[in-house]
Amino acid sequence: MATILGLLLVVTVMANYLATQLPQQMAVNDANHELVVENQLSRLGATLRSIAGAGAIGAEVTQPISLGSLGTPPFAGPDGAQITRGAQGSAFDTSFTVTSGVTFAPPTVGPAGGTTGGDSCSTSSTSLSCSGSGKVFWNFSSTSPTAYSLSTSGGPYNLSVSASHSSLAVTSSSSTPEYLLLVGSYDDVNITISGSGTGLHLTVIGSNDTIQFLSGSWTSSTVSVLLVGNGDTVSTGTESMTSSHLTVSAWGSSDAVTLGTISATSSGIAVYYDGYSSSGSSATCPVDNLAADTDSVGKSTGSAQSGGTYTVTFNDTSVSSGTAPSPWTGTYAEPAPFACPFYATATLPLTPSTSGGGSLLVELRNTYSPDAIVAFDLGAVVFAQGSALPVTIVPPGISFVNGALTLWVPQFIGGYGTEVGTGTAELAARLVSLLNVNQPSGGFSLSGRTSVAVTTPFAAAWLADLDGLPALAGDVACAPATSVACTGPFEFNGPLATVYVNVTATSLALQLATFSLTIS
């Protein structure tokens, strides 16, 4: 009887051990195995980032990965694992646009001379007098102070003058249209408008130029002046205007328009001031509050205006108070940003991207606890189990601090395959190439929004990690929004989703590191 009782006791103890203690011990072994693999992949990521940061092209590192957990012989062997590449379609993409600093590219004056197009013209190196209906193209150029004389009737005309500290006498009579370009500073331009249907379009590129409309009779004429520079002035003499218009657009600072004695019937003068500084960092107007602060309109002492409309618009970055003097009607506006004339930015779309991604998975095939995945996922280390949200063990290589966006992006190439079992796999990674992008640099800066897109089966982990950063609050999204990859719980061999980060960054430091990877 004692023997039977003893055997029953042994059987009971063994049954209790196999039913309770052994599963608990093996579950602990599986959990410890998960921690070991997390630590190994974390060390791998840190090492890869270290040699990339050092720029050590050609450097090779190895990292053992323990595929088997501890067993409990003789009752339970070790649980195994599989190491393989990440899900097809995993990718880390980033796109941004860089712009150069402001470049000033005004029209240029070609070689002296030109063609008269059959017009009746008398020309010299300093003068042109034409009449007729031919198309006249003519250029004047001088490097020393020079007096020029231009007289036109008929047309059309395309005339250009490159000169500084010079004088220019212009008589435009029934010329439709006449385009006159002056490139230079400290020039005096005296213009006489006569006849009917005169159309003069004057563009002045330079500073401290003086444009004066001498006394004349305007009938059904349209005259426009575009000034790009500082300290330019426009004035009128005694003008009789009938169904005619003068428009002055000035881009710069300290520009002025002054009226003489004007009799205007169904006519008007309009002035538009746009604050712009050539030393500004943007080709977007207006710049600062230069228009209302430094530009002005007025009238000569004792002059009078009868009839007509006289309006001035000051375009500024902030609305100024004050009024324009009589007879002017002033408007102070803060328009939406618009392009300045002849100032431009050079844009360079640059979109480094990875496809296939720097991703590998260690799939833990546990017997006494739920199966799990520890992944090196595009720079992050992620732990995932079915029916639970995946979590990041090591955060992604993305940071955004005080407008500075930093991205570290690994990419794996090579024929690394799959290892299965309970032994130890060895990863060998060699740094093949680096792409480093740092902005602003070399005269370029970021323009618009910088976008990051990460496509991964662990999107929910990325979303939780990045959206939890205060600097990225509201700038992170996951799509498709209803996908289980975004919302959880995690599904083995489940769908991919894309986590998007869109920020307005003032600087960007991106490193795309390509590694050749083998597994043995």
Tally of alpha and pi helices: 4
- Sheet with the most strands? 10 strands, mixed
Radius of gyration: 38 Å
Helix content: 10-25%
What shape does the CA trace take?
A: elongated
- Alpha carbon gap, first and last residue: 58 Å
Quaternary form: single chain
Strand order of the largest sheet: 5-8-10-12-14-17-20-23-27-28
| Poorly predicted regions | 350-356
| Secondary structure: number of strands | 43
Q: What fraction of the residues are assigned to beta strands by DSSP? A: over 45%
* Overall average pLDDT: 86
> Structural class of the helix and strand makeup?
mainly beta
Describe this protein with a few key phrases.
mainly beta, 9-stranded mixed sheet, 520 residues, elongated, 10-stranded mixed sheet
